[in-house]
């Protein structure tokens, strides 16, 4: 893996030492995430039932809304590196204790702690966005590499041993991921909280169709197709591989990459007729970084924290809509409609910008 990262740098893709350390950190985080997350909704559904997942995820996101801003405030006190390490350590602890929850409150509390990675995100993104354009999407795509195997390992361990195992190992790996960036020389910028940001709702809107599907896809695959944990892990590996490949190639078309991803994602509801359509859920691994890389302007932790908060609001709105719609199928079908409409709208915006640009040049 290190050889591949160095080879990318030699080919002119400019992954410097800090970028390589960030990428390795995200690889380890990705390993932890993909070990447990395909089974998270399944575990939560065992506690509260599938029709109540929208409510649970809405509460979780609302409580987590201040976390990105907290991450930006910590940047002013302890720097990017230490904030990242703290956030990942706490997040890993939360993941570790999730399967030991005894009640709804315990489960929500552990899940909120696991979401403390959001205090790390503005600082991660700031380190990446201060490189050349597209670096964030490339590193994101590389970080999805663990998804090729770790969902299968998580599914196998859950099927053979216990559903607790993916959460235990996922939590430990998440804790470890933050310490990888310890050699990075960052700076602590004292002073007041400052934000300068272009008002663009795209990062917010792009999250909504993903949020409409996230709580339900895996439980629905279990319900409709009677899949076991191993098959769920295999499906997740396949869809994440699609997302990883898309994340490598779609930045080449710049802003068009996001609407293309959304249009492909809009096919998700067809999995009710043929399960392979569930694989387009992997396009979320292209949608999220593309909305940050090419449709948002800030590079400071403060500015990016606001973008992350906008994204969290997108999760809240998406989960809230799914709560209102109740039935998982209604939420997934609405996601397809919303994603398709948003993709077409963004293409229209791009064409309009191009037309206006040509008019100015003429």
Descriptive report:
The protein has 362 residues and is mainly α. It has a single domain (2-180, 200-361), classed as Up-down Bundle (Growth Hormone, Chain: A), CATH 1.20.1250.20. The protein is built from 17 helices and no strands. The chain has helices at 2-13, 17-36, 40-48, 53-64, 67-97, 104-114, 121-129, 135-143, 150-160, 164-179, 202-213, 217-225, 229-249, 257-265, 284-293, 301-325, 328-361. Helix 7 crosses helix 16 (301-325). It is globular and about 50 Å long.
- Molecular shape: globular
Low-confidence parts: 1-13
- Discrete helix count: 17
CATH class category name? Mainly Alpha
Radius of gyration equals 19 Å
Average pLDDT reading: 86
Architecture per CATH nomenclature, i.e. the level-2 architecture: Up-down Bundle
Extended strand count:
0
The profile of the biggest β sheet is:
none
- What is the H-and-E element order? HHHHHHHHHHHHHHHHH
How would you classify the helix and strand content by structural class? Answer: mainly alpha
Our measurement of the CA-to-CA distance between the termini, rounded to an integer number of angstroms, reads 48 Å
**Helix content range of the residues, please?**
over 70%
**Proportion of strand residues:** under 5%
CATH homologous group name: MFS general substrate transporter like domains
Number of domains: 1
CATH topology: Growth Hormone, Chain: A
Short description:
The chain has 362 residues and is mainly alpha-helical.
Any key phrases for this structure?
362 residues; Growth Hormone, Chain: A; single chain; 17 helices; 72% helix
């Amino acid at each position: 893996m290190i050889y591949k990262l160095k080879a990318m740098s030699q080919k002119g893709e400019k992954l410097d030492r800090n970028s390589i350390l960030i990428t390795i950190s995200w690889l380890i985080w990705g390993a932890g995430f993909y070990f447990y997350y395909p089974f998270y909704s399944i575990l939560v559904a065992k506690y509260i039932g599938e029709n109540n997942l929208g409510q649970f995820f809405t509460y979780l996101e609302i409580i987590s809304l201040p976390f990105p801003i907290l991450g930006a405030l910590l940047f002013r006190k302890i720097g990017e590196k230490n904030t990242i390490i703290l956030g990942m350590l706490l997040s890993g602890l939360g993941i570790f204790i999730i399967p030991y929850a005894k009640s709804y409150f315990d489960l929500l509390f552990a899940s909120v702690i696991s979401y403390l990675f959001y205090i790390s995100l503005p600082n991660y993104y700031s380190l990446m966005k201060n490189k050349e354009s597209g670096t964030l999407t490339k590193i994101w795509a590389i970080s999805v590499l663990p998804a090729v195997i770790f969902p299968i390992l998580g599914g196998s361990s859950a099927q053979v041993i216990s559903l607790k195992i993916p959460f235990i190992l996922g939590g430990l790996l998440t804790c470890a991921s933050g310490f990888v960036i310890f050699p990075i020389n960052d700076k602590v910028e004292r002073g007041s909280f400052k934000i300068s940001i272009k008002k663009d709702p795209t990062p917010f809107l792009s999250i909504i169709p993903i949020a409409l599907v996230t709580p339900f896809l895996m439980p629905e695959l279990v319900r409709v197709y009677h899949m076991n944990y191993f098959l769920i892990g295999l499906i997740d590996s396949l869809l994440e591989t699609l997302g990883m490949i898309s994340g490598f190639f779609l930045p080449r078309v710049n802003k068009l990459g996001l609407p293309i991803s959304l249009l492909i994602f809009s096919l998700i509801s067809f999995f009710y007729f043929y399960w392979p359509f569930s694989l387009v859920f992997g396009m979320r691994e292209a949608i999220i970084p593309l909305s940050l890389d090419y449709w948002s302007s800030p590079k400071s932790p403060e500015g990016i924290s606001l973008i992350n908060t906008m994204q969290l609001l997108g999760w809240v709105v998406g989960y809230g809509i799914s709560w209102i719609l109740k039935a998982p199928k209604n939420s997934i079908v609405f996601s397809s409609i919303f994603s398709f409409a948003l993709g077409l709208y963004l293409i229209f915006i791009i064409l309009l910008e191009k037309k206006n640009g040509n008019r100015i040049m003429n």
